[in-house]
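Exercise 4. Each item below gives a protein and its sequence. For each, produce the structure-token representation.

Item: OLFL3 protein (Caloenas nicobarica).
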Amino acid sequence: MGPRRCLLLLLLAAALRAQQQQFMEYVERRLTLLEERISQWHDQSSRYSTELRDFKNQVLGMLEAAEKEREAMRTEAESAAVRVDRLEREVDYLEMQNPAPPCVEVDETLMEKQVATAKQRKNEKYTKLTDCSDTIASIRSMKILKRFGSTSGLWTKDAAGNSEKIYVFDGTANDTVYVFPRMREFTLFSATRKAARIKLPYPWVGTGHLVYNGHLYYIRQQGPFQVIKFNLANKTVVDSSVFPAEEQIPVFGLSPFTYIEVAADEEGLWAIYATKEDEKNICLAKLDPTSLDIEQMWDTPCPRENAEGAFVVCGALHVVYNTRLPSRSRVQCVFDVSGTLAPEDASLVYFPKRYGSHSGMKYSPQERQIYAWDDGYQIIYRMEMKKKLEV
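Answer:
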């Protein structure tokens, strides 16, 4: 091997050693940088863990404070409820401090006399007291005010007076009537403690009650079916009358809780009922609002089956029908006691589309609208009228 080749090999070996040294230095720098980054990540991770632990402890402290505040508020609410209950009992006690109600026991002799008189005048020609000759042409609008109380009930205003008070009968059997001073209070407030309470001396049943000229006419729950006349001003029973009908049955097939529906129109007071004697059809009676005597009685062609409610307009009974599975309500039978309007000439009137079941319907002669209780909703229906002869 010549000297030149040896020199070349030595130069190559020196170059390789220099490259290896540079590569090792590069690898060491990269490893050092990586170790620095791992150390930095470890420091940041430790700091984040510490901050997370501090935040967790802070949240736990806030939750404990919130739980203590919730417990304190619950205790205050329970205390307030106890005070409200005590106040309501005191108010009820004060309202009950009135003269003893008159005796409303059944006088069998008087009842027999009323039955005989009513049968004598049954189905006689009716002499109109007013010149009212209107009937319902259509029900054009409804207004759903709110949802209050049970699925079944009744709400109404005084059908003969100018009072703005709203009377609410929640449920189908109770002894307490809620009274709201105006429609606004009834609409805005849901709590019953916003309303005055009238505790009746005898519990009521059904949804056929009526407020008329400062008096409440309601059906007594226990014993024979009595119409109680209750003075709303002095909270006393003014009079009562056992309804002169034997073996009464629910008047509406779809509302089995109502046996007597007391109604008012332009002519005065009416009673809608049914008996075993003619259990397929609904009966109608004219009442004297002062003495509760029955002035006249009629058998109507309106069937009880699928009836859910009824009201009287200008001396004509309007019966509202539905189906077992609630659908659209309609006035399908009209019976005019004066004979001006034949049932077959009356229009078939549908209520605005709402699939529910009416448990209470009260006609207001002054406002020409109906206060209805539909599956827990309180609704006002406004009606369009026309003359009976034009139908």
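Check: Helices lie at 3-96, 108-120, 183-188.
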